Amino acid sequence: MDVFSPFKIKSLNFRNRFIRSATHDWMGNEDGSISERQLNMFKELAKGEVGLIVSGHSCVEFPRGRAGLKQNRIDDDRFIEGYKKLADVIHENNSLFAIQISHAGLQTNKDFTNNLDPIDHNTMDKEDINTLVEAFTKAAVRVRLSGADAVCVHMAHGYFLCRTLFSDSNKREDEFGKSIANRSKIALKLIDSIRKALGEDYPIFVKLNSTGGTGEGNISTEELVGVATLLEEHGVDLIEISGGAVGSKENPIDRLNILKIEDEGYFLERAKVVRKNTNTALSVVGGIRSLSLMNEIIGKGFADFISLSRPFIREPDLVIRLKSGQEKVSCISCSKCRNFEGIRCVFNK
Ligand SMILES: Cc1cc2nc3c(=O)[nH]c(=O)nc-3n(C[C@H](O)[C@H](O)[C@H](O)COP(=O)(O)O)c2cc1C
Ligand code: SF4
Predict the structure, then answer these.
(1) Is 328 inside any structural domain?
(2) Which positions fall inside the NADH:flavin oxidoreductase/NADH oxidase N-terminal domain (predicted)?
(3) pLDDT 10s per residue in the chain (349 long)?
(4) CA dist., res. 190 & res. 159, Å (int)
(5) Quick one: residue 70, left, alpha or beta (phi over 0 = left, psi -120 to 50 = alpha)?
(6) Considering the domain boundaries, does residue 334 fall inside one?
(7) What are phi and psi of 5, to 5 degrees?
(8) What is the atom index within ligand 2 of the atom nearest the CA of 332?
């Protein structure tokens, strides 16, 4: 078994173990809808035989849920049409498609929220929580209506749900704070609500932080396993292990200069812990660069999928290249592709 072998989750047939992890591209139209540029970029990825392509994070509430400019939105039915086109172009080229839905929570600023105060997970009341659960659920229904194969709920990188889950960022004293079970309540409430709205057969994926809510410092293994186990019990079909937060010094999401194999897979040890303690399908992201490591991860069963972000910016046809004998991605993990005019590898013409 290697990274090119197929896999199945519910009725989804994956042609290989590659996931293009969610990547905000600064390419959306000003109104938050899908642009022609995005259709072209996703078409290239699907033609490049990526097993599952996850969209960049799309906000479930506007404007307070928005984390960045030119971010796609999924807070209204009018955005379904663009996603339908995206789903079609990906399916025509035989890849699977998931849409990542997110709420920025505190990790945004007034430039993005039309000057409104960001939502604070520590002070919101029950009614606010129910409103957000409803916003996520309606967004998930739009994901299914657009023809995407799965919904991916963003619980990583310091955004709203991520901060509710972990002890370093959740400071609530009520029924939504203190214990692992309490801190997981908002996330589980919305997973249950999405499940009810989409039905038993529809795949629900989660991108989960393994390093706490703010990315500074590390949460305990007990905490990570506790959350992952609850997600599994509530029927999440795939957990993608990530970590860090935007701007974190100690735990960057996209670490720089991953050039030696020893530096690769910087969340792999966390993923192994989750694998040992759960039965959910699992992916791992973060600096995986060598085909040998990818095959080791799949072959030894440390995870079922390999998620990559930056390597697919430099080489959208990476899967075909690796299949043809290339041993390593060409991306040097400099992150200079974070370009507000649209992601672009600085080494590509
Ligand atoms: C330009 C850029 C945009 C990103 N946008 C998202 C996003 O929308 N959602 C998300 O979960 N992660 C996002 N990430 C994080 C990546 O999905 C991934 O977790 C991280 O880059 C580590 O993987 P890599 O080393 O393969 O790039 C982004 C990363 C980059 C470089
Ligand atoms: S700019 Fe190019 S080489 Fe640098 S991280 Fe981005 S894709 Fe990789």
Answers:
(1) no
(2) 3-327
(3) 999 999 999 999 999 999 999 999 999 999 999 999 999 999 999 999 999 999 999 999 999 999 999 999 999 999 999 999 999 999 999 999 999 999 999 999 999 999 999 999 999 999 999 999 999 999 999 999 999 999 999 999 999 999 999 999 999 999 999 999 999 999 999 999 999 999 999 999 999 999 999 877 778 999 999 999 999 999 999 999 999 998 888 889 999 999 999 999 999 999 999 999 999 999 999 999 999 999 999 999 999 999 999 999 999 999 999 999 999 999 999 999 999 999 999 999 8
(4) 15
(5) left
(6) no
(7) -80, 150
(8) 3
Alpha-carbon Rg for the chain, nearest whole angstrom, is 18
> Which residues line ligand 2 at a C-beta cut-off of 6 Å?
310, 313-314, 331-337, 345-347
For residues 14 and 284, what is the distance between their CA atoms, to the nearest angstrom?
Answer: 16
Distance from the CA of 125 to the center of ligand 1, in angstroms?
Answer: 31
Question: How many distinct structural domains can be found in the chain?
Answer: 1
- Interaxial angle between packed helices 80-92 and 36-47, expressed in degrees from 0 to 180 and rounded to the nearest 10: 30
Alpha carbons 210 and 313: distance in angstroms, whole number = 24
Q: Which atom belonging to ligand 2 lies closest to the Cα atom of 335?
A: 5
Q: From CA 163, how far away is CA 340, in angstroms rounded?
A: 26
Neighbours of 164 (CB within 10 A): 26
Å from CA of 108 to ligand 2 middle: 24
Could you list the residue range(s) of the whole structural domain that residue 306 is in?
7-323
Contact 42, 89 (CB under 8 A): yes
| Crossing angle for the helix pair 221-233 and 268-277, to the nearest 10 degrees | 50
Q: Where are the alpha helices (DSSP H) in the chain?
A: 36-47, 80-92, 126-145, 160-165, 180-183, 185-198, 221-233, 268-277, 291-299, 310-314, 318-323
Within a domain: 340: no
The CATH number given to whatever domain includes residue 217 is: 3.20.20.70
Per DSSP, what are the bridge partners of residue 240? 207, 283
Ligand 1 proximity of 240 Cβ (cutoff 6 Å): no
